């Protein structure tokens, strides 16, 4: 599986090379447009998406999860809502879609488009699913499609300027994705130590880096799929263990 010629080995090597210098990879996508993005969806190697999903499960369950859990005890952090109480359609469908459009889609889109749609995606993130929000989401997706059809980097914006700051852009979005999860916790003020917050959010930070790579290398559809599969697996595990403890 991990010999030097394997698909998975090359994927991991490419991932770390991307993290080292994101702009070098993105600069090869100068002619990136909607048609290419849609076409890539039908060429997706789904085994790669499952591979990254399993990698995230293993890393989070056996490494980052325990680290985060131990530091949550040290700083008195508690989840505001138990995972078992989160509706499955939110965890598997709504949250992955909105979070990917908010934190990963901008990694390859015109910043003007991002600024226009940002307030609405934040609104959807904060208010959750409803009939009105589903309609708003549909309109936002139409806007994104329009920019893609028009090849958004040719509209108002200079690609070279974007590439110059791409490394900063990528890591800012990864950190922001991790940071918003701090609001999932309530804290014991007597134990709170701000220096330990990054360790509490390690699972989200690493997941954000992986999802960012998937979005850039294989398109927004792929990152949504992996995010959804990852959440689905976590919810299923929690459901199984909670039912066992109830028996």
UniProtKB/TrEMBL annotation:
Transmembrane segment boundaries: 49-71, 83-99, 131-149, 161-180, 192-214, 220-241
Top-rank taxon: Bacteria
UniProt keywords, alphabetically: Membrane, Transmembrane, Transmembrane helix
Record keyword Transmembrane helix present: yes
Keyword DNA repair carried by entry: no
Name under which the protein is recorded: CPBP family intramembrane metalloprotease
Record lineage: Bacteria, Pseudomonadati, Pseudomonadota, Betaproteobacteria, Candidatus Kinetoplastidibacterium
